[in-house]
Amino acid sequence: MSSTSIFDPRSIESAKNAVASFMKAAFSQQKVSTTAVVCSAVVGLFAYEQYVYLKKKKNLPGPTFKIPIIGAFMDSLYPTFEGYMSKWKSGDLSCVSVFDRFVVIASTCDLSRKVLNAPAYAEPAVVDSMKYILCDDNWVFLSGKAHVDYRKGLNVLFTRKALGLYIPIQEKVYHKHFAEWLALDGLTEQYQLRFRELNMESSLRVFLGDYMSDEVAAKISVEYFNITAALELVNFPIPLPGTKVYKAIQSRKYIVKEFIECVKDSRIRMSNKGEIKSMMDAWINSMNEYEAECAANGKPAPRKFDDREISLTLLTFLFASQDATSSALTWAYQLLADHPEVLQKVYDEQVQVRKGQLDQPLTLELMEESTYLRQVVKEILRLRPPVLMVPYQTVREWPLTPGYVVPKGAMIIPSTYPALHDPVAYPNPDAFDPDRWGPEGTAEKYPKNFMVFGNGPHHCLGREYAIMHLMAVIAESALKLEWTHTRTDQSDDISIFATIYPQDGCIMSFRPKQVSA
């Protein structure tokens, strides 16, 4: 036996070095192998992603390749009107992909109407984040008979009688905000947010009445900004803290909590046969009356909506009306300031229908007599439609055209803007011309093109409410205010924040109306 023991320190050190050298070599080899495998897997996944995209794209206009993983997410995060316009001009159908969502855009009137009227193939998708924000059990996400039945129960809120109830509530809000504008003594500033505040308070007071304080109403207006900000077509898929969707969810929780308190107060007032002062009062009173009628006639008790259901429904009304009507109101003030001859005709008509009594209360009957004013509102909505597109999702493969089958699960988006600027239906479509809606015009001959409020089973339930609101604001403004629009090189350019606005924020000044003797 060698005199060198296996426990000799030199032997141990030599063995340690040998093992370390072997492990280092082995680890280095393993590292190379792992890296190669990972790289190969990533390349394979990216290649497969492109294959899936191209298979769905087929011959549609759209990006030649998808940006790995995120696709056109940045375009969705920062949408531009010019970007949308390029899609509409690229073909009757075009496509894009965002994350794992394949999106098909329908540009023509006929294809857009086809999407809106095909519940067997597609259902409203709102945007991916909305089920988080509005709650996935909200009625707007119902389909088929359940959706139809729910809508029937809401029709009572938008009858002619109901609209007549809302107008005095709205008029009070208008005058409050007019006074705030006039208190600025002709200061020139951006008015887009002021128009939004008028619209928000009008909506809250019509929907929920006087149950909430001015302070709560103001806070809801601020919180609702978070919901609007989360309305990108495709959002970050997980509502992690700090994301827009997460903030919107927290805002929804606050708003619904305050709405529920209002519902409780309304139930008490209506059970005591109190005066109906809001849409919520009218709804609860209608349910109470129907329940009593069923009991008297021995019929089964009707379905009762709990406080949360009523609150979520009113939130969807706010969701449907707030941004769209704020957009329309902003463009209304700008377009009327830029076309004083139209504003003068609006004023003259109001003098006529009121028979010179300019301070009489606003009524539904006065608005119904204001035929030119209705033409003006329809032209504002046509020229600057607040909602450019309405996302749907296919529930099965859909041969939408002879040459293209939309994949199941794809987002399919009907567009409103091209139909509303079709030169066949609306000659000189980029001009502001309310007379096109009059007896001598041709616009009314093309009702299919006027898709401002959608079409089909999910068309806007509050269409007449929205039109009447815009008419009422404009009528009162024409009688009580004079306003000047400071034009910039961005006044006619469109920015997108859920809906569309002038890029310069609508710079204006207001003064009291000077009526010549």
UniProtKB/TrEMBL annotation:
<keyword id="KW-0560">Oxidoreductase</keyword>
<keyword id="KW-0349">Heme</keyword>
<dbReference type="GO" id="GO:0004497">
    <property type="term" value="F:monooxygenase activity"/>
</dbReference>
<dbReference type="GO" id="GO:0000249">
    <property type="term" value="F:C-22 sterol desaturase (NADPH) activity"/>
</dbReference>
<dbReference type="InterPro" id="IPR017972">
    <property type="entry name" value="Cyt_P450_CS"/>
</dbReference>
<dbReference type="InterPro" id="IPR002403">
    <property type="entry name" value="Cyt_P450_E_grp-IV"/>
</dbReference>
<dbReference type="Pfam" id="PF00067">
    <property type="entry name" value="p450"/>
</dbReference>
<keyword id="KW-0503">Monooxygenase</keyword>
<dbReference type="InterPro" id="IPR001128">
    <property type="entry name" value="Cyt_P450"/>
</dbReference>
<protein>
    <recommendedName>
        <fullName>sterol 22-desaturase</fullName>
        <ecNumber>1.14.19.41</ecNumber>
    </recommendedName>
</protein>
<dbReference type="GO" id="GO:0020037">
    <property type="term" value="F:heme binding"/>
</dbReference>
<feature type="binding site" description="axial binding residue">
    <location>
        <position position="460"/>
    </location>
    <ligand>
        <name>heme</name>
    </ligand>
</feature>
<dbReference type="GO" id="GO:0005506">
    <property type="term" value="F:iron ion binding"/>
</dbReference>
<dbReference type="InterPro" id="IPR036396">
    <property type="entry name" value="Cyt_P450_sf"/>
</dbReference>
<comment type="similarity">
    <text>Belongs to the cytochrome P450 family.</text>
</comment>
<dbReference type="GO" id="GO:0016125">
    <property type="term" value="P:sterol metabolic process"/>
</dbReference>
<keyword id="KW-0408">Iron</keyword>
<keyword id="KW-0479">Metal-binding</keyword>
